[in-house]
């Protein structure tokens, strides 16, 4: 009879990870007007360097584009074609043999007499074309973006990294925040775009609100706001005007035990709730919520950190009642072992206090296991990421 035990190695530690892309911002313009007991604010976001938004693309195999109506004779060159999802789409041709990308800035399909520019790639594990300029156009505005295009050595599949965004300073309850938006190249702000919020005193590290889908209604710093967005031109710059209209909602209480969590995001069909340093009893708009993101607190001696994946918890906030929520650290390693004849299946998960699941990437200290027959170690290994 065989006795199998899973020995988990390298118990996890957490630390603040230096942010890859810092937010550099011009001063935003903020105007406030009282409407009864509500606060209406107009926040002007100016062009800024922001954390990049990734957009995947695939123009290989069944999705491959045929030759454009007007393009040069490439003779025996390996050629691939694609579209960048601006409005209207921006066509490009990839000359794989010469490491070049031809992009039509006028967004038509004429690469013979039309105006196109050439970008040259570098190889960084993937083929990378840097600092590509593209535009989305409306009747009144031309909105510029800078992107990187990352693809594989052959064909036309990979991802875009949108490097251009808009940022400004928002003041609530005497505290100042850097409010940043990254658009997905279509010139419209909605849930396909991303919101980042950083304490204005913070000079590095991950934004407290990180990579959040842009909400229509947002509860933040004790206020509920409906958000409306409009691109405008001021002198030579395209700015993004955000109208925050405060909403008065029925309130309930949430008693949070989150083990030193840095940030908690709740969501329902009507709004997103953003809670920084969540602990103790907080007042929230009533409704049924799901956990959308959770950022555990970190130590400072490691460059890796666990990332929230999912949670099955439902949080119900009712008027005049207090709901208890226990989530976050300490996180624990869990293993589920099953056997099918001579095959032993071991599944690893990193789980929080509320049963929520996390992903942990540390190439140097991956979670591992050992299998014993009595005192004899007969197998060992590490778990794959994910």
Quick tags:
386 residues; 4-stranded antiparallel β-sheet; 0% helix; disordered N terminus
Task: Describe the protein.
The chain has 386 residues and is mostly beta strands. Among the domains are: 1-17 and 249-386, no CATH class; 54-161. The protein is built from no helices and 29 strands. The protein has strands at residues 29-35, 38-58, 79-84, 90-95, 100-104, 116-120, 122-123, 127-137, 142-151, 157-172, 175-182, 194-199, 209-213, 217-220, 223-234, 237-247, 251-257, 263-267, 272-276, 280-285, 287-295, 307-310, 314-317, 322-326, 332-340, 343-351, 357-359, 368-373, 376-382. Strand 8 (127-137) and strand 9 form a beta hairpin. Residues 1-36 have low confidence and may be disordered.
């Amino acid at each position: 009879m065989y006795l199998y035990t899973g020995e988990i190695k390298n118990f996890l530690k957490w630390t603040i990870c230096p942010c890859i892309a810092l937010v550099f911002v011009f001063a935003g313009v903020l105007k406030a007007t009282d409407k009864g007991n509500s606060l209406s604010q107009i926040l002007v976001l100016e062009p800024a360097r922001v954390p990049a938004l990734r957009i995947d693309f695939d123009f290989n195999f069944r999705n491959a584009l045929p030759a454009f109506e007007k393009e040069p004779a490439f003779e025996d060159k390996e050629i691939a074609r694609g579209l960048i999802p601006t409005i209207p789409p921006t066509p490009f041709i990839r000359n794989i043999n010469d490491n070049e990308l031809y992009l039509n800035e006028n967004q038509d399909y004429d690469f013979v007499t039309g105006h196109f520019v050439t970008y040259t790639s570098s190889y960084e594990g993937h083929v990378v074309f840097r600092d590509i300029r593209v535009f989305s156009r409306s009747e009144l505005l031309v909105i510029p973006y800078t992107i990187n295009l990352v693809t594989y050595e052959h064909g036309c599949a990979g991802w875009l990294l949108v490097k251009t965004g808009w940022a400004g300073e928002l003041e609530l309850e005497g505290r100042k925040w850097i409010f940043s938006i990254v658009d997905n190249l279509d010139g419209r702000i909605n849930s396909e775009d991303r919101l980042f919020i950083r304490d204005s005193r913070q000079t590095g590290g991950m934004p407290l609100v990180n990579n959040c889908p842009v909400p229509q209604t947002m509860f933040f710093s004790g206020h509920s706001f409906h958000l409306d967005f409009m691109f405008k031109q001021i002198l030579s710059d395209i700015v993004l005007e955000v109208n925050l209209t405060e909403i008065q909602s029925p309130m309930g209480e949430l008693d949070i035990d989150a083990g030193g969590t840095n940030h908690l995001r709740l969501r329902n069909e009507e709004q997103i709730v953003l809670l920084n340093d969540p602990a103790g009893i907080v007042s929230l708009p009533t409704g049924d919520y799901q956990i959308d993101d959770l950022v555990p607190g970190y130590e400072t001696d490691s460059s890796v950190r666990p990332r929230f994946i999912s949670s099955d918890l439902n949080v119900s906030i009712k008027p005049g009642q207090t709901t208890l929520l226990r989530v976050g650290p300490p996180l624990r390693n869990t293993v589920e072992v099953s056997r099918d004849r001579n095959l032993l299946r071991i599944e690893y998960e990193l789980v929080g206090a509320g049963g929520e699941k996390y992903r942990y990437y540390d190439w140097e200290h991956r979670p591992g296991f050992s299998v014993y027959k009595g005192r004899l170690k007969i197998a060992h290994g590490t778990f794959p990421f994910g």
